[in-house]
Every structure is written in C-alpha cells, then in structure tokens.
Amino acid sequence: MTSTVKIISVGNSAGIILPKELLEKLRVSKGDSLTVTESPTGVNLTAYDEKISRQIQVAEQVMRDNRNMLRKLAQ
Question: In sequence order, which residues have a C-beta less than 8 Å from that of residue 43 and are 6 or more positions away?
Fold first, then answer.
C-alpha cells in the first residue's frame, strides 16, 4: 500500500492527515497514539503499545549503560 499525504499547519506545528484505509490497517482511530520509529529507509508508523514502548526504553537504557561492552562483543 502506498499513500501520499500532505503536510498541513496545526497551530505552530505541522501534521499529516492519514487516509481512512491506512488508519484501518494500523488499527487506530482519531485520538489514538502512534509510535514513530526511524529505520534505514525512513520512518515507520505503528499503533502505540505501552508494553512494547516500555521494553524499547529498557533496551535503549541497557545499550547506553553497556555501550563499551557491547562494542567489544560485536568485534
């Protein structure tokens, strides 16, 4: 599925309007939150999941705290 969206003004910010079909595919509706994740090819939008969000926060903290050890393991 490919969609083109337009960036619009929302107060002092910017926003996009997602087509109904995309909202259905994401299983979200007006007022829901989305998680935006950077990837090598751009960004990914997924429905916000508090449990997954917390797991990602913990993993990022572990990677920050153990950066040097992880670099050595990667060699």
Answer: 36, 37
Classify residue 48: in a domain, yes or no: yes
Q: Is residue 14 part of a domain?
A: no
Tens-digit pLDDT string for the chain (75 aa)? 777 889 999 999 999 999 999 999 999 999 999 988 899 999 988 888 878 778 888 888 988 899 888 888 888
Token digits for 58?
Answer: 């913990």
Q: Count CB-CB contacts under 10 A for residue 28.
A: 17
Beta strands in the chain (DSSP E): 7-10, 13-16, 34-39, 42-47
Cβ-proximal residues to 63 (8 Å cutoff; 6+ apart), any chain: 70
